[in-house]
Amino acid sequence: MILFWTVVALLVLLAAVYATLPLAREPEPFPSDPLPEELRAEIEALKQEARELEGSERKRTLGRIVQLERRLAELEGRPAVPGARRVSWVALMVTTAFLVFVGGVLLRYTLPRAPGETITTSNLISGERTVDRAKLAELNRLKTRAERNDDAESWLAYGNAAWEVADYNAAAEAYKRVLDLDSKNLTAWKRMGILFFMSGFPEDAAQVLQVVVGVDPNDTEALLFLGNAYSMLGRFDEAISVWERYLAVGGPDAERVNALIAQARAQQEAKAAVDRGQVPAGNVVYEVKCAACHGQNGEGGIGPRLVGNPVLRVDGAVAEIVNKGTGSMPAIPMSEAELQALLDYLKGL
């Protein structure tokens, strides 16, 4: 084993030296930067071209526009770049030592994993809380017991432990098996309803959680997510009613739910304005459609920071993202008038 780790350390060292060798060579002259006027001309030409393109070609062109916008911002705002200089061997050796240290730390804390652990469970992080190995070992023990006993009680214990460490795939598997064995288990139904909501199926979530709340009207967890599902479906009156019930029975996250109620009422006002043929102001559209993920003032949150984001300078790129979604962000339905009001508002961030 010692020989194995010695070989691994040597390989890391050799890779680090090889990676830093180019730094010791005589630097090659860089081509001169393009003038801002040239970049502006190219950006305008690409914008004209993007209006006539569709699909993947349009996305590539919009991406190029964003890159050039960034470059233009750098050219207009940065100081002159100092000349390249030769890197000393001392700097190379310090860099190499640092890389070897980092490699050793990674090897120490990522390998080996305990038998039966997955990458997800061995490195599981929930928010800012790293799940300790004792909980993960207990999770594996409960899974083994559930597979051996194959009864509702064992699977429920495993599902609850997986839920506790945010391993939602394992939790879903466990709760499904609970319902196969005991179709009236309220905890399993509740958690499956919440998982439907988290997976982007609010209608299914609402149907399941309505049943749970009908049986236990004081279950604050079910009330919270039933309100969330109603809100996602645009059923704001019902969402507010459910959240007010949550507050009345002493739900633990009153501040968050009061904010959700305020947001739902703002959404009602925006919807009423649209129904009257009025276009809501851009800040209202932003608060209703975007603030939950991107922050009240565009400072970022679940979604990326919008303040100062160069993407906002390209209307076509923003509209494409809003209408079709990107990455983990879903498409956000809104009218053309709402979209234009939002685009105008975002330019002022």
Automatic annotation (TrEMBL):
Coiled-coil region: 36-78
Domain called Cytochrome c: residue spans: 277-349
InterPro entries with a match to the protein in the record: Cyt_c-like_dom (IPR009056), Cyt_c-like_dom_sf (IPR036909), Cytochrome_c550/c551-like (IPR051811), TPR-like_helical_dom_sf (IPR011990), TPR_CcmH_CycH (IPR056413), TPR_rpt (IPR019734)
Organism, as annotated: Oceanithermus profundus (strain DSM 14977 / NBRC 100410 / VKM B-2274 / 506)
Assigned keywords, A-Z: Coiled coil, Electron transport, Heme, Iron, Membrane, Metal-binding, TPR repeat, Transmembrane, Transmembrane helix, Transport
TPR repeat spans: 152-185, 220-253
Phylogenetic lineage: Bacteria, Thermotogati, Deinococcota, Deinococci, Thermales
UniProt superkingdom: Bacteria
Protein name per the record: Tetratricopeptide TPR_1 repeat-containing protein
Transmembrane portions of the chain: 87-107
Database matches in SUPFAM superfamilies: Cytochrome c, TPR-like
Alphabetized SMART domains for the sequence: TPR (SM00028)
GO molecular function, one term: heme binding
